Hints:
Blueprint: E1 5-9, H1 18-29, E2 33-40, E3 53-58, H2 61-69, H3 76-92, E4 96-100, H4 105-115, E5 120-124, H5 129-133, H6 142-148, H7 153-162, E6 166-169, H8 172-181, E7 190-192, H9 199-204, E8 217-222, H10 231-243, E9 248-253, H11 261-268, E10 277-280, H12 288-294, E11 297-300, H13 314-321, E12 325-329, H14 332-341, E13 344-347, H15 350-361, H16 364-381, H17 384-395
Parallel strand pairs: 1-2, 1-4, 2-3, 4-5, 5-6, 6-7, 8-9, 8-11, 9-10, 11-12, 12-13
Amino acid sequence: MSKKNVGIVLDKEFYSDIRVRKEADILVKNGFNVFVLCYSFKNYDYSKVQPIEVTSIKQSKKVKNILFFIFQRLPIYEYLWSKKIRQFILKNSIDIIHAHDLYMSKCAHKAIKSSKKEVELILDLHENYPVAVNSYNWTKGSLRGLIANTTIWFKKEKEYLSYADKVIVLSDNFKKSLIEKYDFLKPESIYSFDNSIDIKKFESFPIKTLPKTKNRITLFYFGIIGQRRGVFTLLSVFQKAIERDLKIDLLFVGPIDKADDKTFKEWITNPTIKEFVNHIPWIDLSELPSYLSSIDICVCPLIKNAQHESGIANKIFQYLFGAKAIIASNCLPQQQLIESYNCGLVYGNEDEFLACIEQLVNDESLRKEMGENGKKMLYYNYDNQKQDNTLTQIFK
């Protein structure tokens, strides 16, 4: 039986999306020919990802963002992607299109239809998109809201899901909610594939000793920095902790959402906390284990909503690998994981958040116990081979 050609379609840069890279690596390892169609904003050398063959679309990020912003008023974005996907299918004799995010479904469907080829469409939902897009700051405000018209996604979700032959979601919770909402979706055509890490890859990263403030506990946040991710809640609680004279520092590692840049910088230059807060805009993923080894408590303060309850954030699995206690908001999937593994504390409001910080700051043995619990359960429950088998079965 000849190898199947899988065409991954992603309206981002391939190297920057951890989930997509992991899925592509699994497919290559299990005998598929993998082709990728994606953006290239910075002329990245995609020859580094061989044997995966990448077709990159050279475009400025600004133009891409403008076209996406007017998506609902002038569907140029969808038209251009449909054209590119059709060419991609014909050039590479694609058997399966693996399209990422709900809004890429229709253009992939149109491209398959116009190619006149028998191509299966697998749609990978990275989030509960209608909820997520309406939480973004770029959709806020009367004029912006009118132009972006993102509320229409609650109506369009059904149509866009109907184009897919199979759907991949982040969790069983999300799968269940979609099946209950849309009776045309069949349980056997929806698959859960979580955001857990490639453990073997993380094990290969070298651990370097990083400087640490003496006699102070370090709280650590890793990932994109923005309001919807609960960062301002974290800063508000951190300020209260400093005012209570807790000996703690706060380290952020990750890029700032453009819409939240000003507010974040105002917060971290606040005279009450500025000497205790540090922000590093970017590190290579290979450096993350070194940072995890040098900090004390990991934080995941996601705002509780339907989007953040569609699955468990990638950072939770990264924190588990680091064997550090976690403080997280009560988004259901991450709450269930943390409580069942006894690997951290969960809060529902700022007072509870502060109490969690105080408890872990003052109890070193509890921090150590929870961290060890988390790492042990990561290895036990999120074995890479299980994910390999799941994804391979979807594509076979």
